[in-house]
Amino acid sequence: MQSAMRGVAVTFIFSVFAMAQARPFLGPDVQQIYQRLLPQIEKIPAFDHHAHPGFADDPDVDAMAAPPNYSEPVRSREDNPELAVAAKALFGYPYPDLSPEHEKWLLDKKNELKKQLKGTEYFDSILDKINTESSVANRAMMPDYLDAKRFPWVFFADSFMWPFNNEREAARNPDEGVYIPLQEKMLHRWMQQENVSKLPADFGVYLNFISRVLEDNSKRGGIAMKFEVAYFRPTTFSDPSQAQAQDIYARYIGGGIPTEKEYRTFQDFIFRYLVSEGGRLHLPVHIHTAVGIGDYFNLSQSNIMNLESVLRDPRYASTIFVMIHGGYPLEREAIWLAAMKNVYLDSSFGELAQYPSAFKDTLKMWLETFPDKITFGTDAFPYNDVLGAEESYWLGAQSSRMALAAALAEMISEGEITEARALELAHAYLHDTAVKLYNGRVH
Ligand SMILES: [Zn+2]
Predict the structure, then answer these.
(1) 69 CA distance to ligand 1 centroid (A)?
(2) Is 0.85 surpassed by the pTM of this model?
(3) Distance 375 CA to ligand 1 centre (A)
(4) What is the mean pLDDT of the chain?
């Protein structure tokens, strides 16, 4: 009986594959399929799962700031000619480069538009031009010039891990000298928000304060919490008891510098506390998982695989995790973390760090593994007045749509999927998969 059943199953599978057996080479039709898919993909309204919208002079665009004098990879540099193409598409910029004498045209044009498009209209118009329905605003605080309906807030949760004397933390290297004081500032802003003038002596009260910030941020429109902890310390998290964390808190909240080991142990507990609160409060947890800016960013200590002990911990099964930047350049390993039902990958930054031909291969590999667990994002950011969030939105969205069309065209040409299935996958990646994570709070 059993072997007969198996025989039926084998015949069935064989016949399915005989109709559509995947081939190892692209067919001659791949370009045509791409040309057919691209306009359809451009028509899909997108949900941008990770970006930092805002003006260059707005200090709340991020909870940290760019470190001094760091090395930019070539495509992120100001002389990338694609940026002039972005400015042309968005603002009708007439020059092929962004030389200082031509830049003035763009600055004037943007200023004129900002005067015409009042309040939230300016940034809404940018989303309209790139066919993005709404975009996450991963920012320290929200400004009045972003429409909260189209720019849902993702706030930062790292600062609760730095409540003690941070002299040694800030002295580690010049980058930390910029970052750590900004974490202290962020913690103070949460204290102000909750009318707390001094951190409590009691650890239980401190944990209640953290939960109150999360609850209030959720009420104020926050849809998720974000960690950029990889910029500040290794992402290996041990599993200390509350008693251990409480003991360290009691000894240092009034002053004194904890040893590095003590500080890490305390932070490991707080990180896990925040992660479980994310489950209780339905606040997905976004974590920066990729290379980062700054020459002191430590790649091996921030390897996405360091997070495996947290992601695969059944205690956090009700917390949704979004691996921001998909672990780049370890995106091949990263996709296997999405085997966990509650783990998702965001592709932002990958589409800017790589050119579309390489990013296409990333997307294709992800689409061939866990296509229902990957989401689109741009990591748009206002680098300066000339190269604004506007241009980086355009370049990120444009690169992602091209790479997506190319990846799907290859999969169709190789006999892996039908065109109808390709369009379903495109909708899921560009919009539907991410939107479903927020229980109707975003569109
Ligand atoms: Zn970012």
Answers:
(1) 19
(2) yes
(3) 14
(4) 94
